[in-house]
């Protein structure tokens, strides 16, 4: 509620009569821009002032949104109340002239001006509302706050543009610090929802730290808000939507002319595109629907796929229920762009193992997902030199994603797909083989780990340590897969070491956790889950659909797993995390070699020469690596 907000206009004195006469607020110069949006300048079409003051309650708002022909009132109720109370004042005056004693109610009306009385009543209502808010705020809210986490530790977050698969990932534009928006004004005692203009002070993924215009360097009322949320709008939205713009109560005394202040502050500034909310909505429309049937990896036997049904879709992530699960508890979570899901018939088309369902016919309402919905892989030419069974390589272990292991191509499928097994850990029936495409960023040529100073996990039980590829190839009578067959493309992904994000725990894919990029090798990212030990880190590709910007969970309604508290890490490590560790049954080999040992091996190794390009483990620039086998 504004007490004495006449200072926000040129002259807004109230009248005790119901006459509709008023003094026009001084118009802004027609050539003065209000805001710049994508290079365009917006002004009010009539050239008049964009602000007005309600003669009933004193609220300052957008002139075009006010009521009556002369724009004197902010709402219909204010207009009616003004007219009704003016009539009451007129009746009281006539009663006094007639010589009748005034009532107690009349004495109150006489003691203070009409607007002041109504303002006091509005203030009283606002006080009751604030008391209710304060009482509600006194109840502690459990949950994790990205804003507090980033502010208290001075963290930085990966920008939205790093995540092409996420909402607005490809159309984020130049949203940055300094952009102005219209947001709800929380520093106000009015009973109705009002807005004010704020500027972006800091960006962290989808989240923005905002500061109300007029606070200058005062950060006392700064607040975090999801840019894609429903309460944030481009400058000008209030004018077109009929919503009032009201300065925060804390700074209402700072300026005598808020119109001139806003014009000066907003001239030449940037705001969100007018269709920003529409773009957000469109980017959150997902083609996969419930009851669609897909083929997905069998989580109990990685070598095969099974039919599953889409049970729910959250932010592009699919909860798939295996078709044979009667109670719908046997499920699997993955993103709709995951390489682990395919259209019905994919397994047969490439020669992949497939578990046939005992269900002889489709259940009512279930239907096959159209093939065009699935992520397309890059076409390869297998006619010439190509992968062959028995070739050696290095691969991320799907059962222990923190490890890159010695691996072997066990079967070559159609369309560029390969079945790969981890040396020393394979089941006799091949049930733990897993399928990677030839262009997958999760497989690497022999020597990749050594040249990039990554610990390579040798075969379990291998005695000759430290592990040397040349010796191992000779002992196993094997050859290395040709380097030229691997994917060496490195996109300019934009990630940097230390950036925060939200990441899926691929060992427990229903969980999305607070995470940090701790290392970058070309396009490969080392993801650390905040609060957990480094041994649970995971190697993930920079374009993985299992990585999301800060604020993704809030935007989509998905539950975010916060960092483990310092006080409970030890107990968690020995309980819940041990369950997770049991999945990994992989020997991790000896500790990483020292730089001196590595250099000595590189100098002594006559069989391989490693030619490294502009590799920068801490940058996002393109890099290449080659391994040349000497004759």
Automatic annotation (TrEMBL):
<protein>
    <submittedName>
        <fullName>Mbt domain containing 1</fullName>
    </submittedName>
</protein>
<dbReference type="InterPro" id="IPR050548">
    <property type="entry name" value="PcG_chromatin_remod_factors"/>
</dbReference>
<dbReference type="InterPro" id="IPR038603">
    <property type="entry name" value="Znf_FCS_sf"/>
</dbReference>
<feature type="domain" description="FCS-type">
    <location>
        <begin position="45"/>
        <end position="80"/>
    </location>
</feature>
<keyword id="KW-0804">Transcription</keyword>
<keyword id="KW-0539">Nucleus</keyword>
<dbReference type="InterPro" id="IPR004092">
    <property type="entry name" value="Mbt"/>
</dbReference>
<keyword id="KW-0863">Zinc-finger</keyword>
<feature type="compositionally biased region" description="Basic residues">
    <location>
        <begin position="577"/>
        <end position="593"/>
    </location>
</feature>
<keyword id="KW-0862">Zinc</keyword>
<feature type="region of interest" description="Disordered">
    <location>
        <begin position="609"/>
        <end position="631"/>
    </location>
</feature>
<keyword id="KW-0677">Repeat</keyword>
<keyword id="KW-0479">Metal-binding</keyword>
<keyword id="KW-0156">Chromatin regulator</keyword>
<dbReference type="GO" id="GO:0045892">
    <property type="term" value="P:negative regulation of DNA-templated transcription"/>
</dbReference>
<dbReference type="InterPro" id="IPR012313">
    <property type="entry name" value="Znf_FCS"/>
</dbReference>
<dbReference type="GO" id="GO:0003682">
    <property type="term" value="F:chromatin binding"/>
</dbReference>
<dbReference type="Pfam" id="PF02820">
    <property type="entry name" value="MBT"/>
</dbReference>
<dbReference type="GO" id="GO:0042393">
    <property type="term" value="F:histone binding"/>
</dbReference>
<keyword id="KW-0805">Transcription regulation</keyword>
<feature type="repeat" description="MBT">
    <location>
        <begin position="144"/>
        <end position="248"/>
    </location>
</feature>
<dbReference type="GO" id="GO:0006325">
    <property type="term" value="P:chromatin organization"/>
</dbReference>
<feature type="repeat" description="MBT">
    <location>
        <begin position="467"/>
        <end position="563"/>
    </location>
</feature>
<feature type="region of interest" description="Disordered">
    <location>
        <begin position="1"/>
        <end position="31"/>
    </location>
</feature>
<dbReference type="GO" id="GO:0008270">
    <property type="term" value="F:zinc ion binding"/>
</dbReference>
<feature type="repeat" description="MBT">
    <location>
        <begin position="354"/>
        <end position="459"/>
    </location>
</feature>
<feature type="compositionally biased region" description="Low complexity">
    <location>
        <begin position="1"/>
        <end position="18"/>
    </location>
</feature>
<dbReference type="GO" id="GO:0005634">
    <property type="term" value="C:nucleus"/>
</dbReference>
<feature type="compositionally biased region" description="Polar residues">
    <location>
        <begin position="611"/>
        <end position="623"/>
    </location>
</feature>
<dbReference type="Pfam" id="PF21319">
    <property type="entry name" value="zf-FCS_1"/>
</dbReference>
<feature type="repeat" description="MBT">
    <location>
        <begin position="256"/>
        <end position="352"/>
    </location>
</feature>
<feature type="region of interest" description="Disordered">
    <location>
        <begin position="561"/>
        <end position="595"/>
    </location>
</feature>
<feature type="compositionally biased region" description="Low complexity">
    <location>
        <begin position="566"/>
        <end position="576"/>
    </location>
</feature>
């Amino acid at each position: 509620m504004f007490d004495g907000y006449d200072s926000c206009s040129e002259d807004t004195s109230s009248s005790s009569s119901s006459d509709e006469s008023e003094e026009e607020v001084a118009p802004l110069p027609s050539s003065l821009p209000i805001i710049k949006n994508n290079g365009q300048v917006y002004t009010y079409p009539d050239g008049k002032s964009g602000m007005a003051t309600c003669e009933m309650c004193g609220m300052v708002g957008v002139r075009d949104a006010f009521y009556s022909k002369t724009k004197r009132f902010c709402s219909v109720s204010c207009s009616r109340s003004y007219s009704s109370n003016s009539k009451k004042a007129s009746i009281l005056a006539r009663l006094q002239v007639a010589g009748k004693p005034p009532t107690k109610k009349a004495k109150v009306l006489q003691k203070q001006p009409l607007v002041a009385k109504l303002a006091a009543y509005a203030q009283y209502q606002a006080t009751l509302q604030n008391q209710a808010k304060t009482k509600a705020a006194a109840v502690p809210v459990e949950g994790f706050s990205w804003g507090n986490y980033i502010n208290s530790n001075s963290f930085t977050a990966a920008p939205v543009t790093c995540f092409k698969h996420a909402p607005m990932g490809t159309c984020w534009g130049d949203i940055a610090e300094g952009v102005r928006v219209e947001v709800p004004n929380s520093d106000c005692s009015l009973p109705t929802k009002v807005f004010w203009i704020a500027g972006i002070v800091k960006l962290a993924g989808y989240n923005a730290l905002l500061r109300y215009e007029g606070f200058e360097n005062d950060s006392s009322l700064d607040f975090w808000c999801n840019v894609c949320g429903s309460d944030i709008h481009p400058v000008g939205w209030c004018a077109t939507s009929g919503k009032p713009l009201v300065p925060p109560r804390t700074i209402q005394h700072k300026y005598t002319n808020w119109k001139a202040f806003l014009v000066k502050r907003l001239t030449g500034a940037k705001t969100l595109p007018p269709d920003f909310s529409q773009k957000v909505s469109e980017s959150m429309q997902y083609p996969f629907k419930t009851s669609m049937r897909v083929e997905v990896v069998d989580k109990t036997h990685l070598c095969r796929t099974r039919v599953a049904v889409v049970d729910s879709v959250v932010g592009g992530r699919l909860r798939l229920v295996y078709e044979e699960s009667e109670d719908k508890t046997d499920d699997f979570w993955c993103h709709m762009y995951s390489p682990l899901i395919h259209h019905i018939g994919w397994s047969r088309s490439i020669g992949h193992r497939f578990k046939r369902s005992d269900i002889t016919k489709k259940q009512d309402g279930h239907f096959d997902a159209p093939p065009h919905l699935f992520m397309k892989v890059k076409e390869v030419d297998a006619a010439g030199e190509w992968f062959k069974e028995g070739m050696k390589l290095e691969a991320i272990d799907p059962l222990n994603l923190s490890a890159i292991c010695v691996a072997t191509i066990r079967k070559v499928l159609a369309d560029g797909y390969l079945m790969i097994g981890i040396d020393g850990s394979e089941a006799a029936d091949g049930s733990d083989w897993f399928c990677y495409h030839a262009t997958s960023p999760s497989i690497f040529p022999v020597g990749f780990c050594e040249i990039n100073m990554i610990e390579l996990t040798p075969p379990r039980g291998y005695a000759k340590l430290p592990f040397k590829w040349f010796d191992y190839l000779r002992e196993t009578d094997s050859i290395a897969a040709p380097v030229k067959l691997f994917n060496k493309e490195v996109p300019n992904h934009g990630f940097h070491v230390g950036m925060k994000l939200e990441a899926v725990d691929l060992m427990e894919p229903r969980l999305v956790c607070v995470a940090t990029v701790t290392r970058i090798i070309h396009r490969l990212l080392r993801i650390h889950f905040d609060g957990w030990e480094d041994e649970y880190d995971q190697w993930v590709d920079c374009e993985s659909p299992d990585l999301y910007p800060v604020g993704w969970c809030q935007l989509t309604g998905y539950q975010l797993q916060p960092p483990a508290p310092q006080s409970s890490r030890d107990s968690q490590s020995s309980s819940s995390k041990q369950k997770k560790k049991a999945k990994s049954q992989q020997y991790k080999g000896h500790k990483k070699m020292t730089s001196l040992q590595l250099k000595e091996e590189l100098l002594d190794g006559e069989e391989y020469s490693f030619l490294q390009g502009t590799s920068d483990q801490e940058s996002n620039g393109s890099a290449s690596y080659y391994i040349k086998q000497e004759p």
